[in-house]
Amino acid sequence: MEPVPPPKTYRVKSFGCQMNVYDGERMAELLSAQGINPAPEGENADLVVLNTCHIRERAAEKVYSDIGRIVKDWGRDDGSSPLIAVAGCVAQAEGEEIMTRAPAVRMVVGPQAYHRLPGMIAEAVAGKRAVDTDMPAQTKFDALPARRKVGPTAFLTVQEGCDKFCTYCVVPYTRGAEISRPYADLVAEARRLVDAGALEITLLGQNVNAWSGEDARGRAVGLDGLIRELAEIPGLARIRYTTSHPNDMTEGLIAAHAEVEKLMPFLHLPVQAGSDRVLKAMNRSHTRDSYLRILERVRAIRPDIALSGDFIVGFPGETEEEFAETLSLIDAVGYAQCFSFKYSPRPGTPAAAMDGQVPPQVMDERLQRLQAALQRSSLAFNQTSVGRTCQVLIERKGRLPGQWLGKSPWLQSVHFEGEVAIGDLVTVELLEAGPNSLHARLLHAAHA
Ligand code: SAH
Ligand code: SF4
Ligand code: F3S
């Protein structure tokens, strides 16, 4: 390809899960540290990083349409297109294939290799195309610059990768084997996030509750030990974690929900389906019953906990009766909020080759019924909050003038009016509930 001038501005677009959002932020910081600046809103950038997701077919296909649009709309005066880098899970899964399918792409970099972007940019500027989907032993975390400025809520990746191999899922292939970042590094990064302005930290991992490490005294600790240590950081008001796997839900972590005040009463614990036969075919290694028993234990010690989950409809072979078991599970749990998806066959996963692929119309119809049940469940949960007084951490302005939007301890979106600012932790009374948000009245605007 023809050499181009070194990029002066960049834009990182992240898709997919919160870990990708975290990676996107880290890439942005890395590029800024190289003297490349974020492109102003509405202006074209010299370097575009598409930080992609491979979890479902639609997410993966989006990359190619995005590349096409960038090339078409973002052409520069000299006729050249911006430097395009494809990062994230599509990069990992498809590697060289992206280069063939999208000739405009100069760099393909996997989620464990993006700390090497600066070197790749130098090559791309010289006219070369580079693919790096290594999973190097020196992790990206050691090679990335420290974080400087963050909003009131920040993500902190503590664990990456997955060894669970659910039969439908690409994550073990795109993110690699489970690794836990060292305790001391995480405590240090959390302190820096708080110094940079974070009041709430969400600990992230594909299986965050599988995190394990050694504390300062060399004792083996699980995620609950890390949470207890982070709770000691002055100025940090709230701790959350996501996503958990039912099999790694330890007694210690459950107990932390009763004992650690800064740990918010919210648990995202995906179940995927309500039928034991389907769960087994998914290789989930928990049953409907073992899952429900975990939730019972959590509720016993933290009765107000907001529960959340992920669901897949139309897994190969799912019958109408089996789907009905998913609906009855939803009724049994009473979720606060959930994500739900149509099964999407992913190349190379065992489920993609299974018999009994469910026709699209059947999946559509099941998804509709599932989402209706989830909406009812969320509304019912939010209605039980009406009349409560709670703290809300303000994240942004609302749609209406004078309106603000923040999150309750139960991760509900709460809007209200008042003389406040982003990053304030205020006390409100919850007045009215919808399925997706609550309206509140400001009681006092005390700062954190
Ligand atoms: N590690 C987490 C989440 C991984 S991906 C967990 O185990 O729960 C997020 C969600 O995407 C999954 O929980 C699942 O509901 C959904 N998902 C993953 N692969 C999928 C596929 N092939 N088709 C449809 N949904 C899928
Ligand atoms: Fe995917 Fe299952 Fe691992 Fe979650 S636990 S990332 S769904 S393989
Ligand atoms: Fe998507 Fe990769 Fe996350 S496939 S959901 S971006 S781990």
Features:
21 strands, pyruvate-formate lyase- activating enzyme, 3 domains, 14 helices, alpha/beta, five-stranded mixed beta barrel, OB fold (Dihydrolipoamide Acetyltransferase, E2P), 448 residues, binds S-adenosyl-L-homocysteine, binds FE3-S4 cluster, Rossmann fold, 34% helix, binds iron/sulfur cluster
Question: Could you characterize what this model shows?
Answer:
This protein is an alpha/beta fold and 448 residues long. The protein has 3 domains: 124 residues, Methylthiotransferase, N-terminal domain (Rossmann fold); 246 residues, Alpha-Beta Horseshoe (pyruvate-formate lyase- activating enzyme); 58 residues, OB fold (Dihydrolipoamide Acetyltransferase, E2P), CATH 2.40.50. It is built from 14 helices and 21 strands. The strands form 6 sheets. A 6-stranded parallel β-sheet has the order 2-1-3-4-5-6, sandwiched between helices. A hairpin with a 3-residue loop joins strand 20 and strand 21. Helix 9 runs parallel beside helix 10 and helix 13 packs parallel to helix 14. The longest helix has 26 residues. The chain starts with 8 loop residues before the first strand and ends with a strand. 44% of the residues are buried. It binds S-adenosyl-L-homocysteine, iron/sulfur cluster (SF4) and FE3-S4 cluster. The site of FE3-S4 cluster (F3S) has 14 residues, from helix 1, helix 3 and helix 7. Iron/sulfur cluster (SF4) binds next to helix 7.
Outline the low-pLDDT stretches: none
So, CATH architecture of the largest domain?
Alpha-Beta Horseshoe
Question: CATH class of the largest domain, please?
Answer: Alpha Beta
Question: What does the radius of gyration come to?
Answer: 23 Å
The total domain count is 3
End-to-end Cα distance: 53 Å
Q: In which range does the helix fraction lie?
A: 25-40%
CATH superfamily of the largest domain: tm_1862 like domain
**Oligomer, anyone?**
single chain
The share of residues in extended strands comes to 15-25%
Shape: globular
Strand order of the largest sheet: 2-1-3-4-5-6
Average the pLDDT over all residues and give the rounded result: 94
Bound heterogens, unique: S-adenosyl-L-homocysteine, iron/sulfur cluster, FE3-S4 cluster
